[in-house]
Amino acid sequence: MHRKVSITTYFDFNTPVIVLKSLFLKYDSDRNNYLNRDELKTLFIEDLGFSTEQCEVYTFLLDKDGNNKISFDEFVSWLKSGEHFKNISNKSRYQRLKKAVEMFKKFDVDNNQSLDRDEFKRLFISLNGDPPKLDAALAELDRDGNNKISFEEFLRWLNWVPLDHF
């Protein structure tokens, strides 16, 4: 059984950046200044007591740009967001997030945590999207203009959970 953890146990707004960097570097085993999925999963399990399923949800949530790795800035942004584990402590929200992750993964064929144009096209058509409107839909969802849909962009589009703290 995983223990309940309060984010304030690990962080408050007065926590020095050096402490956060130390926690981040503790798990950045390849020293590339990013946490990959496995490194982030280890941090979540060992320091925060997350389950494997919870790790997966948060890995998707923290990867803002869909590049399959978490930067220190993304990590700190999450800690400063005030989210306080609401996305897993609220059972209804957590169930919606799990469903969103499952749907996203179904269409993320290359498993890189983002949807390229072809992957998004399959999703769009499966939801009875009008093919001539594909480019407009893609442009609307791709908020950062990197020609791929991150999980966050996908989740904002679904509008299943509030993302005010992310």
Number of helices: 10
Percent of residues in helical segments? 55-70%
Largest sheet: 2 strands, antiparallel
Q: Major sheet: order of its strands?
A: 1-2
Structural class: mainly alpha
- The average pLDDT is 85
Order of helices and strands: HHEHHEHHHEHHEH
DSSP strand tally:
4
Query: What integer value in Å does the Rg equal?
Result: 16 Å
- What is the molecular shape? globular
Termini separation (Å)? 27 Å
Low-pLDDT windows of residues:
1-8
The percentage of residues in β strands lies in under 5%
Any chance you could write out the topology, listing elements then pairs?
Blueprint: H1 7-10, H2 17-27, E1 34-35, H3 37-48, H4 52-62, E2 70-71, H5 72-80, H6 86-89, H7 91-107, E3 114-115, H8 117-126, H9 134-141, E4 149-150, H10 151-158
Antiparallel strand pairs: 1-2, 3-4
Write up this protein.
The structure is a single chain. The protein has 166 residues and is mainly α. Helices cover 57% and strands 5% of the residues. The chain contains 10 helices and 4 strands. It has a two-stranded antiparallel ribbon with strand order 1-2. Strands 3-4 form a two-stranded antiparallel sheet.
Task: Give a brief outline of the structure.
By secondary structure, the protein is mostly helical. The protein has helices spanning 7-10, 17-27, 37-48, 52-62, 72-80, 86-89, 91-107, 117-126, 134-141, 151-158; strands spanning 34-35, 70-71, 114-115, 149-150.
